[in-house]
Amino acid sequence: LCYALILRHTQNQTYRNILNALNPTLIDSDLITQHGGVESFEIGLYGCSEMVNEGFRALVQQGVVRRRVSEDSAMMERINANKATPDDNERLAKNGKYLHGAFYLGSPEFYQWVREQGQQHNTLGMQRVSQVNSVTGEHYHLEKEQRLYPRFINTCMMATPFGGAVSDTLPDGRVVSGVGGQYNFVSMGFNLPNARSMLLLRAVRQQGQQQISNIRWTLGNVTVPRHLRDLLITEYGIADLRYATDAECVKRVLAITDESAVDELIAEAVSSLKLSPNNTSEKSELSGQLAADNNADQIVNALAPFRQSGDLLDYPLGSDFTDTEQRLVRALSLLKTAMSSKKDMLSMLTKAVFAKKVDSEAIARMGLANPKSVKEHLYQRLLNVALAQTSD
Predict the structure, then answer these.
(1) What share of the chain is helix, strand, coil (3-state, %, to 5)?
(2) pLDDT tens by residue, 83-102
(3) From the DSSP assignment, how many helices (H) and strands (E) are in the chain?
(4) pLDDT digits (tens, 9 = 90+) for 64-88
Protein backbone atom coordinates (compact mmCIF):
# COMPACT_ATOMS: atom_id res chain seq x y z
CA LEU A 1 0.00 0.00 0.00
CA CYS A 2 2.72 2.49 0.97
CA TYR A 3 4.76 1.59 -2.08
CA ALA A 4 1.72 2.08 -4.34
CA LEU A 5 1.24 5.56 -2.89
CA ILE A 6 4.92 6.31 -3.49
CA LEU A 7 4.66 5.09 -7.08
CA ARG A 8 1.60 7.25 -7.61
CA HIS A 9 3.45 10.32 -6.37
CA THR A 10 6.97 9.81 -7.72
CA GLN A 11 6.44 7.64 -10.82
CA ASN A 12 2.92 8.52 -11.80
CA GLN A 13 2.99 7.15 -15.34
CA THR A 14 4.31 3.79 -14.11
CA TYR A 15 1.54 3.75 -11.51
CA ARG A 16 -1.07 4.36 -14.20
CA ASN A 17 0.47 1.70 -16.43
CA ILE A 18 0.21 -0.88 -13.64
CA LEU A 19 -3.43 -0.03 -13.00
CA ASN A 20 -4.19 -0.25 -16.71
CA ALA A 21 -2.49 -3.64 -16.92
CA LEU A 22 -4.67 -4.94 -14.09
CA ASN A 23 -7.91 -3.29 -15.26
CA PRO A 24 -8.06 -0.93 -18.26
CA THR A 25 -11.35 0.59 -17.09
CA LEU A 26 -10.34 1.33 -13.50
CA ILE A 27 -8.74 4.77 -13.85
CA ASP A 28 -11.77 6.31 -15.55
CA SER A 29 -14.34 4.60 -13.31
CA ASP A 30 -16.68 6.73 -11.21
CA LEU A 31 -15.33 5.16 -8.03
CA ILE A 32 -11.76 6.27 -8.73
CA THR A 33 -12.55 9.69 -10.17
CA GLN A 34 -14.94 10.58 -7.33
CA HIS A 35 -13.17 9.03 -4.35
CA GLY A 36 -9.45 8.81 -5.01
CA GLY A 37 -8.02 9.85 -8.33
CA VAL A 38 -4.66 8.76 -9.70
CA GLU A 39 -2.75 12.05 -9.86
CA SER A 40 0.37 12.90 -7.87
CA PHE A 41 -0.36 14.50 -4.50
CA GLU A 42 -0.36 18.30 -4.71
CA ILE A 43 -1.04 19.02 -1.03
CA GLY A 44 0.15 15.74 0.45
CA LEU A 45 -1.46 13.45 2.99
CA TYR A 46 -1.82 13.61 6.75
CA GLY A 47 -1.09 10.27 8.43
CA CYS A 48 -2.79 9.01 11.58
CA SER A 49 -2.38 5.42 12.75
CA GLU A 50 -2.48 3.45 15.99
CA MET A 51 0.84 1.92 14.94
CA VAL A 52 3.34 3.91 12.88
CA ASN A 53 5.86 1.70 11.07
CA GLU A 54 8.50 1.69 8.34
CA GLY A 55 5.95 2.40 5.62
CA PHE A 56 5.11 5.77 7.10
CA ARG A 57 8.78 6.71 7.17
CA ALA A 58 8.99 5.99 3.44
CA LEU A 59 5.84 8.04 2.80
CA VAL A 60 7.34 11.01 4.64
CA GLN A 61 10.70 10.70 2.92
CA GLN A 62 9.11 10.50 -0.52
CA GLY A 63 6.93 13.56 0.06
CA VAL A 64 3.58 11.77 0.19
CA VAL A 65 2.84 12.48 3.87
CA ARG A 66 3.44 16.19 4.38
CA ARG A 67 0.09 17.92 5.08
CA ARG A 68 0.38 19.43 8.55
CA VAL A 69 -2.49 19.76 11.01
CA SER A 70 -2.89 21.75 14.19
CA GLU A 71 -4.54 21.06 17.54
CA ASP A 72 -6.33 24.42 17.21
CA SER A 73 -9.79 23.56 15.89
CA ALA A 74 -10.75 27.10 14.90
CA MET A 75 -7.48 27.55 13.04
CA MET A 76 -7.92 24.27 11.15
CA GLU A 77 -11.40 25.36 10.14
CA ARG A 78 -10.06 28.61 8.72
CA ILE A 79 -7.26 26.81 6.88
CA ASN A 80 -9.63 24.28 5.32
CA ALA A 81 -11.98 27.08 4.24
CA ASN A 82 -9.08 28.94 2.58
CA LYS A 83 -9.49 31.75 5.12
CA ALA A 84 -6.22 31.28 6.98
CA THR A 85 -4.47 34.36 8.31
CA PRO A 86 -0.71 34.85 7.88
CA ASP A 87 -0.38 34.00 11.56
CA ASP A 88 -2.32 30.74 11.01
CA ASN A 89 0.02 29.70 8.23
CA GLU A 90 3.09 30.58 10.27
CA ARG A 91 1.88 28.64 13.31
CA LEU A 92 0.98 25.62 11.18
CA ALA A 93 4.39 25.56 9.50
CA LYS A 94 6.16 25.98 12.83
CA ASN A 95 4.20 23.60 15.08
CA GLY A 96 1.88 21.54 12.89
CA LYS A 97 2.25 17.76 12.63
CA TYR A 98 1.92 15.65 9.49
CA LEU A 99 1.89 12.28 11.30
CA HIS A 100 0.27 11.12 14.53
CA GLY A 101 0.59 7.68 16.09
CA ALA A 102 -0.13 5.93 19.37
CA PHE A 103 3.07 3.90 19.19
CA TYR A 104 5.99 3.50 16.80
CA LEU A 105 7.46 0.14 15.82
CA GLY A 106 10.29 -0.65 13.41
CA SER A 107 13.99 -1.23 12.82
CA PRO A 108 16.89 0.54 14.56
CA GLU A 109 17.10 2.85 11.53
CA PHE A 110 13.42 3.63 11.96
CA TYR A 111 13.90 4.59 15.62
CA GLN A 112 16.82 6.82 14.66
CA TRP A 113 14.56 8.54 12.14
CA VAL A 114 11.89 8.99 14.81
CA ARG A 115 14.46 10.56 17.14
CA GLU A 116 15.63 12.94 14.42
CA GLN A 117 12.07 13.89 13.52
CA GLY A 118 11.15 14.29 17.16
CA GLN A 119 13.82 16.93 17.66
CA GLN A 120 11.72 19.20 15.45
CA HIS A 121 8.40 20.71 16.47
CA ASN A 122 6.57 20.31 13.15
CA THR A 123 6.88 16.65 12.21
CA LEU A 124 5.61 13.74 14.33
CA GLY A 125 3.22 13.60 17.24
CA MET A 126 1.97 10.98 19.69
CA GLN A 127 -1.60 10.66 20.87
CA ARG A 128 -3.60 8.30 23.03
CA VAL A 129 -5.02 5.23 21.32
CA SER A 130 -8.49 6.49 22.22
CA GLN A 131 -7.87 9.70 20.29
CA VAL A 132 -6.29 8.05 17.26
CA ASN A 133 -8.99 5.38 17.03
CA SER A 134 -12.09 7.45 17.70
CA VAL A 135 -13.71 10.69 16.62
CA THR A 136 -16.96 10.44 18.60
CA GLY A 137 -15.81 12.18 21.77
CA GLU A 138 -14.93 15.72 22.74
CA HIS A 139 -12.40 16.06 19.91
CA TYR A 140 -14.89 15.40 17.11
CA HIS A 141 -14.85 18.88 15.59
CA LEU A 142 -11.04 18.99 15.63
CA GLU A 143 -10.72 15.49 14.15
CA LYS A 144 -13.23 16.41 11.44
CA GLU A 145 -11.07 19.33 10.38
CA GLN A 146 -7.81 17.38 10.60
CA ARG A 147 -9.05 14.30 8.75
CA LEU A 148 -10.34 15.70 5.48
CA TYR A 149 -11.58 13.12 2.97
CA PRO A 150 -10.22 10.36 5.20
CA ARG A 151 -9.55 6.82 4.01
CA PHE A 152 -9.46 4.15 6.70
CA ILE A 153 -7.58 1.08 5.48
CA ASN A 154 -7.50 -2.34 7.14
CA THR A 155 -6.84 -5.94 6.17
CA CYS A 156 -9.00 -8.91 7.07
CA MET A 157 -8.86 -12.71 6.76
CA MET A 158 -12.23 -13.52 5.21
CA ALA A 159 -15.38 -11.69 4.13
CA THR A 160 -18.89 -12.41 2.93
CA PRO A 161 -20.59 -11.13 -0.22
CA PHE A 162 -22.57 -8.81 2.05
CA GLY A 163 -19.54 -6.99 3.45
CA GLY A 164 -19.15 -8.65 6.83
CA ALA A 165 -15.56 -9.56 7.65
CA VAL A 166 -13.49 -11.50 10.18
CA SER A 167 -9.96 -10.58 11.17
CA ASP A 168 -9.27 -12.21 14.50
CA THR A 169 -11.03 -15.55 15.07
CA LEU A 170 -11.36 -18.81 13.15
CA PRO A 171 -14.74 -20.60 12.81
CA ASP A 172 -13.81 -23.02 15.62
CA GLY A 173 -13.18 -20.16 18.04
CA ARG A 174 -9.39 -20.10 17.91
CA VAL A 175 -8.16 -16.53 18.22
CA VAL A 176 -5.33 -15.78 15.80
CA SER A 177 -5.08 -12.03 16.25
CA GLY A 178 -6.32 -9.20 18.38
CA VAL A 179 -8.97 -6.95 16.91
CA GLY A 180 -6.86 -3.89 17.65
CA GLY A 181 -8.39 -0.73 16.28
CA GLN A 182 -9.93 -2.31 13.19
CA TYR A 183 -13.56 -1.90 14.20
CA ASN A 184 -12.86 1.67 15.29
CA PHE A 185 -11.24 2.61 12.00
CA VAL A 186 -14.09 1.05 10.03
CA SER A 187 -16.69 2.89 12.07
CA MET A 188 -14.83 6.19 11.59
CA GLY A 189 -15.46 5.69 7.89
CA PHE A 190 -19.10 6.36 8.71
CA ASN A 191 -18.61 9.01 11.41
CA LEU A 192 -16.72 11.60 9.37
CA PRO A 193 -17.89 13.46 6.24
CA ASN A 194 -16.51 12.26 2.90
CA ALA A 195 -14.88 9.27 4.60
CA ARG A 196 -14.51 5.75 3.21
CA SER A 197 -13.56 2.49 4.89
CA MET A 198 -11.51 -0.05 2.93
CA LEU A 199 -11.08 -3.70 3.85
CA LEU A 200 -8.34 -5.52 1.95
CA LEU A 201 -8.03 -9.30 1.68
CA ARG A 202 -6.66 -11.95 -0.62
CA ALA A 203 -9.39 -13.63 -2.64
CA VAL A 204 -7.82 -17.04 -2.04
CA ARG A 205 -5.29 -18.63 0.26
CA GLN A 206 -3.12 -21.68 -0.27
CA GLN A 207 -3.83 -24.58 2.07
CA GLY A 208 -1.51 -27.41 1.08
CA GLN A 209 -2.31 -28.07 -2.57
CA GLN A 210 -5.75 -26.51 -2.32
CA GLN A 211 -6.80 -22.97 -3.01
CA ILE A 212 -9.39 -21.92 -0.44
CA SER A 213 -11.59 -18.92 -1.12
CA ASN A 214 -11.56 -16.16 1.47
CA ILE A 215 -14.92 -14.96 0.19
CA ARG A 216 -17.35 -17.13 2.17
CA TRP A 217 -21.14 -17.14 2.13
CA THR A 218 -21.16 -17.28 5.93
CA LEU A 219 -18.55 -16.75 8.64
CA GLY A 220 -18.23 -18.47 12.00
CA ASN A 221 -17.29 -15.19 13.67
CA VAL A 222 -17.47 -11.55 12.61
CA THR A 223 -15.14 -8.66 13.41
CA VAL A 224 -16.78 -6.06 11.15
CA PRO A 225 -20.57 -6.42 10.75
CA ARG A 226 -22.32 -6.19 7.41
CA HIS A 227 -24.05 -2.92 8.26
CA LEU A 228 -20.63 -1.24 8.17
CA ARG A 229 -19.90 -2.50 4.67
CA ASP A 230 -18.09 -0.13 2.38
CA LEU A 231 -15.17 -0.85 0.04
CA LEU A 232 -13.99 -4.46 -0.19
CA ILE A 233 -10.76 -4.96 -2.14
CA THR A 234 -9.04 -8.12 -3.40
CA GLU A 235 -6.31 -8.68 -5.96
CA TYR A 236 -9.06 -8.78 -8.58
CA GLY A 237 -10.60 -5.39 -7.96
CA ILE A 238 -12.77 -3.17 -5.79
CA ALA A 239 -16.36 -3.79 -4.71
CA ASP A 240 -18.25 -0.69 -3.59
CA LEU A 241 -20.84 -2.01 -1.13
CA ARG A 242 -21.93 1.18 0.60
CA TYR A 243 -25.67 1.80 0.16
CA ALA A 244 -25.94 -1.29 -2.07
CA THR A 245 -28.73 -3.85 -1.82
CA ASP A 246 -27.89 -7.45 -0.94
CA ALA A 247 -28.28 -8.50 -4.57
CA GLU A 248 -25.99 -5.69 -5.71
CA CYS A 249 -23.44 -6.64 -3.05
CA VAL A 250 -23.43 -10.26 -4.21
CA LYS A 251 -22.82 -9.29 -7.84
CA ARG A 252 -20.10 -6.77 -6.98
CA VAL A 253 -18.25 -9.16 -4.66
CA LEU A 254 -18.50 -11.97 -7.21
CA ALA A 255 -16.63 -9.66 -9.58
CA ILE A 256 -13.61 -9.66 -7.23
CA THR A 257 -13.80 -13.34 -6.23
CA ASP A 258 -11.46 -16.02 -7.55
CA GLU A 259 -12.93 -18.06 -10.40
CA SER A 260 -12.71 -21.25 -8.32
CA ALA A 261 -15.35 -20.01 -5.88
CA VAL A 262 -17.76 -18.22 -8.21
CA ASP A 263 -20.14 -21.05 -9.09
CA GLU A 264 -20.55 -22.16 -5.47
CA LEU A 265 -21.31 -18.61 -4.34
CA ILE A 266 -23.80 -18.13 -7.15
CA ALA A 267 -25.55 -21.34 -6.08
CA GLU A 268 -25.70 -20.10 -2.49
CA ALA A 269 -27.06 -16.75 -3.66
CA VAL A 270 -29.79 -18.41 -5.70
CA SER A 271 -30.65 -20.79 -2.87
CA SER A 272 -30.96 -17.83 -0.49
CA LEU A 273 -33.01 -15.83 -3.03
CA LYS A 274 -30.35 -13.13 -3.31
CA LEU A 275 -30.16 -13.84 -7.04
CA SER A 276 -33.15 -14.83 -9.10
CA PRO A 277 -33.38 -18.62 -9.58
CA ASN A 278 -35.08 -18.08 -12.94
CA ASN A 279 -32.57 -15.65 -14.41
CA THR A 280 -30.27 -18.24 -15.96
CA SER A 281 -28.72 -15.73 -18.36
CA GLU A 282 -27.59 -13.55 -15.48
CA LYS A 283 -26.05 -16.52 -13.68
CA SER A 284 -24.36 -17.75 -16.83
CA GLU A 285 -23.00 -14.30 -17.63
CA LEU A 286 -21.58 -13.84 -14.13
CA SER A 287 -19.99 -17.29 -14.03
CA GLY A 288 -18.59 -17.22 -17.55
CA GLN A 289 -17.17 -13.73 -17.34
CA LEU A 290 -15.47 -14.25 -14.01
CA ALA A 291 -14.10 -17.67 -14.92
CA ALA A 292 -12.21 -16.03 -17.75
CA ASP A 293 -10.66 -13.23 -15.70
CA ASN A 294 -10.24 -13.94 -12.01
CA ASN A 295 -7.29 -16.25 -11.56
CA ALA A 296 -3.73 -15.99 -10.31
CA ASP A 297 -2.19 -16.47 -13.76
CA GLN A 298 -3.97 -13.39 -15.04
CA ILE A 299 -2.47 -11.28 -12.22
CA VAL A 300 1.01 -12.77 -12.67
CA ASN A 301 0.96 -12.18 -16.42
CA ALA A 302 -0.35 -8.63 -16.06
CA LEU A 303 2.37 -7.68 -13.60
CA ALA A 304 5.23 -9.64 -15.19
CA PRO A 305 6.59 -6.70 -17.26
CA PHE A 306 6.76 -4.52 -14.14
CA ARG A 307 8.51 -7.26 -12.18
CA GLN A 308 11.07 -7.61 -14.97
CA SER A 309 11.64 -3.85 -15.17
CA GLY A 310 12.22 -3.62 -11.40
CA ASP A 311 9.17 -1.44 -10.76
CA LEU A 312 7.57 -4.16 -8.60
CA LEU A 313 9.84 -5.89 -6.10
CA ASP A 314 9.25 -8.46 -3.36
CA TYR A 315 10.43 -5.95 -0.75
CA PRO A 316 10.00 -2.50 -2.32
CA LEU A 317 10.64 -0.63 0.94
CA GLY A 318 13.74 -2.60 1.81
CA SER A 319 14.39 -5.70 3.90
CA ASP A 320 16.84 -7.18 6.39
CA PHE A 321 17.09 -10.16 4.03
CA THR A 322 20.08 -10.14 1.70
CA ASP A 323 19.47 -10.71 -2.03
CA THR A 324 20.56 -14.32 -1.56
CA GLU A 325 18.14 -14.81 1.35
CA GLN A 326 15.31 -13.30 -0.66
CA ARG A 327 15.92 -15.89 -3.38
CA LEU A 328 15.92 -18.60 -0.72
CA VAL A 329 12.60 -17.40 0.70
CA ARG A 330 10.93 -17.97 -2.67
CA ALA A 331 12.58 -21.35 -3.19
CA LEU A 332 11.86 -22.68 0.30
CA SER A 333 8.24 -21.54 0.04
CA LEU A 334 7.91 -23.56 -3.15
CA LEU A 335 9.39 -26.63 -1.46
CA LYS A 336 7.03 -26.25 1.49
CA THR A 337 4.04 -26.19 -0.85
CA ALA A 338 5.32 -29.17 -2.84
CA MET A 339 5.78 -31.24 0.33
CA SER A 340 2.03 -31.18 0.97
CA SER A 341 1.40 -33.18 -2.21
CA LYS A 342 2.86 -36.63 -2.91
CA LYS A 343 2.52 -36.02 -6.64
CA ASP A 344 4.36 -32.68 -6.56
CA MET A 345 7.01 -33.99 -4.19
CA LEU A 346 7.64 -36.99 -6.47
CA SER A 347 7.97 -34.62 -9.42
CA MET A 348 10.48 -32.51 -7.49
CA LEU A 349 12.47 -35.61 -6.50
CA THR A 350 12.57 -36.78 -10.12
CA LYS A 351 13.87 -33.42 -11.28
CA ALA A 352 16.37 -33.38 -8.41
CA VAL A 353 18.16 -36.43 -9.84
CA PHE A 354 19.29 -34.37 -12.83
CA ALA A 355 19.48 -30.98 -11.13
CA LYS A 356 22.53 -28.80 -11.59
CA LYS A 357 23.79 -26.20 -9.18
CA VAL A 358 22.19 -22.89 -10.24
CA ASP A 359 22.87 -20.60 -7.28
CA SER A 360 26.11 -21.27 -5.40
CA GLU A 361 25.55 -18.41 -2.95
CA ALA A 362 22.13 -19.69 -1.91
CA ILE A 363 23.38 -23.25 -1.58
CA ALA A 364 26.26 -22.05 0.59
CA ARG A 365 23.93 -19.93 2.72
CA MET A 366 21.99 -23.10 3.56
CA GLY A 367 25.21 -24.93 4.47
CA LEU A 368 24.86 -27.34 1.55
CA ALA A 369 27.89 -26.32 -0.54
CA ASN A 370 29.73 -29.52 0.43
CA PRO A 371 27.11 -32.14 1.32
CA LYS A 372 28.46 -35.04 3.35
CA SER A 373 25.49 -37.40 3.61
CA VAL A 374 22.90 -38.80 1.24
CA LYS A 375 20.29 -36.62 2.92
CA GLU A 376 22.33 -33.47 2.40
CA HIS A 377 22.95 -34.36 -1.24
CA LEU A 378 19.20 -34.80 -1.71
CA TYR A 379 18.46 -31.49 0.05
CA GLN A 380 20.97 -29.70 -2.15
CA ARG A 381 19.45 -31.09 -5.33
CA LEU A 382 15.88 -30.30 -4.23
CA LEU A 383 16.93 -26.78 -3.38
CA ASN A 384 18.56 -26.42 -6.80
CA VAL A 385 15.27 -27.40 -8.44
CA ALA A 386 13.32 -24.91 -6.37
CA LEU A 387 15.83 -22.12 -7.00
CA ALA A 388 15.65 -22.77 -10.74
CA GLN A 389 11.86 -22.70 -10.73
CA THR A 390 11.61 -19.48 -8.73
CA SER A 391 14.38 -17.52 -10.41
CA ASP A 392 13.26 -14.32 -12.16
Answers:
(1) 50, 15, 40
(2) 999 999 999 999 999 999 99
(3) 18, 11
(4) 999 999 999 999 999 999 999 999 9
